[in-house]
Amino acid sequence: MLQTIRLWFAPAPSIPQKSEKEIQSLYPKFRFRVLESTFLGYTTYYLTRNNFSPVSKEIGEALSYSKTDIGDILAVTAITYGIGKFLMGSLSDRSNPRKFMAVGLFLTAILNFSFGFANHYWIHLFLWGANGLVQGMGWPPCGRSLGHWYSVRERGTTFAFWNIAHNIGGGIVGVVASHSAAQFGWQYAFFVPGIIALFGSAYLYIRLVDTPQSEGLPPIEVYKNDYPPEEKEDHEAELTTKQLIIEQVLMNKYIWLFAVINFFVYIIRYSLIDWGPTYLKETKGADLLGGGYSTLILEFGGIGSTILMGWVSDKFDGRRGMVSLLCIIPIFFAFLGILWNPPGNIIIDYILFGLIGLFIYPPVMLLGVAGMDFTSKKAVGTAAGFIGLFGSLGRTAQGKGLAILATNYSWDVAFYAILVSTLIAIVLLVFSWNLRPRG
Question: Which UniProt keywords apply (predicted)?
Answer without folding.
Answer: Membrane, Transmembrane, Transmembrane helix
